[in-house]
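Assess this:
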Amino acid sequence: MADSKTKPAKPANKTPPKSPADPAKERAAKRLSYESNSSHEGASASEMSALEEAFKRFAIHGDTRATGKEMHGKNWSKLCKDCHVIDSKNVTITDVDIVFSKIKGKSRTITFDQFKEALQELSKKRFKDKNDEETVEEMHKLVEGKAPVISGVTKAISSPTVSRLTDTSRFTGSHKERFDLTGKGKGKAGREDLVDTSGYVPGYKHAGTYDQKVHGSK
């Protein structure tokens, strides 16, 4: 017996077919979205670039193996001195050491994020007449773009010992023979015994005057 029930027909798809997308427009939209996100990220990064650059410069100072990602206590103290975070009035070297020990915890170094925390701690003491937001801003201005101050350049100093050793008038023996009365070196004549072929006795005061007299009388 044939099945008298008929199967219901499937509803027609009323969703209109998508029009073929324009590849050029899709690429342009993606590019605009990427540039928008990149510009936003770049703007936020540039705000901290000067501060982070200063951190890295001081972090690698005096250590050829440093990566610039962490900072030791010695370099932290130097940064605070060179950038005038320490004013010997509101912030002292003791304050700087205490904050570093507090921020670093059990570690020996601090990261850039911990560095910002340390600056924030000191900013409250350094700029007491400003609110919290202004103190951090002023503290960042002291540090941003700065680099370690190089000191300890060797300078020539006058020493009695050095003067005595370099005074040719006090030389004796073979050393004395190497210089004339003015202190100028004689060169080869002061180092080797040269044969005198002038015909005069060595040390004769009037050496060379004979030829002058003979030629002068003619």
Notes: Residues 38-47 have pLDDT under 50 and may be disordered. The beta strands are 71-72, 109-110. The CA atoms of residues 93 and 133 lie 24 Å apart.
